[in-house]
Amino acid sequence: MLEVPKDKPENLLNSKRPTRVFTETNHSQGEAPALRRNPGSPTIQLIEKQQGTKILFRKFSETNWSVDIRPLNKSLVTDSKWKRIDATQEKRRSFLREFCKKYGGVSRPQSHVFHMVSRIYVEDKHKILYCEVPKAGCSNWKRILMVLNGLAPSADNISHDAVHYGKHLKKLDSFDLKGIYSRLNTYTKAVFVRDPMERLVSAFRDKFEHPNSYYHPVFGKAIIKKYRPNACEEALNNGSGVKFKEFIHYLLDSHRPVGMDIHWEKVSKLCYPCLIHYDFVGKFETLEEDANYFLQLIGAPKELKFPNFKDRHSSDKRTNAQVVGQYLKDLTRTERQLIYDFYYLDYLMFNYTTPFL
């Protein structure tokens, strides 16, 4: 069993540890330049020196997987219009593979296999494994999986509740170890990610700026109680009206009054991309074209296209860089940098541009 060092708990807001300074860049579509390996960078030092980073990658047991990911089967892709998207996909896969070789470690002691595949959905007919990253198009991806499974004729009329609460789809942790490993070795594995700041703000808007019978009483009440001095009785009782700054104090607090949630958990802890070798890396910034290319790769029905509608709160503006800027302006520079430090692994492994403010 893996022994995890018990580091002294730390409140990041009061931490003296180094943080990475935001620098201005102008790369489009969430793509950053090749990873800079500057040994003097505080963030690179964090990666190489903090034991917790290495431990994150050392949790699979009894695996017989190849070191390298399998090449995609492109035999079903006949249209030349996909060449540009394919080239981008190859770059993403190569970047993630090189990142994991450098920082991922090689030791694989026995640990929590079922936990590490618990976010992965299975579609056996087309041999797909899809790792769910909330706020990165996952609702519409589940709709697609339901259609591929023969559970619905079209993705357009599947309700939000049917997608998230219907329990129509199988997860990889529902199989025994043999079933898990055989699928990991033979199925096409996909993960779709999003700029971490955008994903964080999108989650906050969805869960705390609209009525919610779970997040307000469970998270809202605890956040207001701990981080709002002199809170009124009504706010303490219903948990509504959490401010973004209060939410960030909760996120960065090692003594959170309530645990983490998948909607703002790091992708590195949801999908373990340096241990599970994903064959396809899609991005929310190019979601529709990435998803439709993936559907071509796996031989989906030609009439099946990825939905482009907003799952909930359709009248709200989509969370983009401009919307994120409005939320971050109320935070201090230190708080903004600490958010980046919190998600730095996601920024680096998926080659996202370092934010600047």
Structural features, described:
The protein has helices at residues 42-49, 51-56, 83-103, 113-116, 138-148, 160-165, 177-186, 196-208, 215-227, 233-238, 244-252, 267-270, 287-297, 321-328, 333-342, 344-349, and strands spanning 120-123, 128-131, 170-171, 188-193, 280-283. The radius of gyration is 21 Å and the shape is globular. The longest helix has 21 residues, at 83-103. Strand 1 (120-123) and strand 2 form a beta hairpin. With 357 residues, the chain is mainly α. It has a 5-stranded mixed sheet. Helix 8 packs across helix 14 (321-328). Mean pLDDT is 81; it is low at 1-10, 15-29, 33-45 and 47-68. It starts with 41 loop residues before the first helix and ends in an 8-residue tail after the last helix. It is built from 16 helices and 5 strands.
Which spans of ≥5 residues are poorly predicted at pLDDT below 50?
Answer: 1-10, 15-29, 33-45, 47-68
Q: Could you tell me the mean pLDDT?
A: 81
Largest sheet: 5 strands, mixed
Spell the H/E element sequence. HHHHEEHHEHEHHHHHEHHHH
Percent helix range = 40-55%
Spatial strand arrangement across the major sheet: 3-1-2-4-5
Please tally the helical runs, counting DSSP H or I stretches of 4 or more residues. 16
Taking the alpha carbons of the first and last residues, their distance comes to: 43 Å
